[in-house]
Amino acid sequence: VIGSITGVRFILDTFPQIGRGPSLNVGIHHGALTEGLLTFAIVTISLGLARKIPGSFYMKTWISSVSKLALHILGSDMTGGCMNPASVMGWAYARGDHITKEHILVYWLAPIQATVIALWLFKLVVRPLAEEKKDSKSKSE
């Protein structure tokens, strides 16, 4: 968070016309739902690509980059589409609204809850690779 705040201050000092960072353009509940769904999607995609499945490192990186960019563009009109509480903190601190109900609910609680739910569901739905290897070995014997 300290690095984000320092980076934003450096950017604003260097390029004062750059902008004001992400801002909420919808209701607080709609914004929290949007940030939560975007975060859920990106965590699920990242977990799926992180599994040791056959495929090119470059293809996985490309899929991850394109999906993050697409999700960012989808959410940019409503919430800024940040999906990262630390990066939003720098902009909010620079504007002076880092301790508001809107900021805490939309940019902190929703992404953290979405990450926990995505991890839990991924673990529940996708079997670990160790179990898959044990099952295939026991079937071949």
UniProtKB/TrEMBL annotation:
- What SUPFAM superfamilies does the annotation carry? Aquaporin-like
Location of the protein in the cell: Membrane
Membrane disposition: Multi-pass membrane protein
* Record field: transmembrane: 28-49, 105-126
Provide any one GO MF term from the record.
channel activity
Q: Which residues form a coiled coil?
A: none
Highest taxon of the source?
Eukaryota
Q: Quick one: signal sequence residues?
A: none
Going by the UniProt record, its keywords in alphabetical order are: Membrane, Transmembrane, Transmembrane helix
Q: What is this protein called?
A: Aquaporin
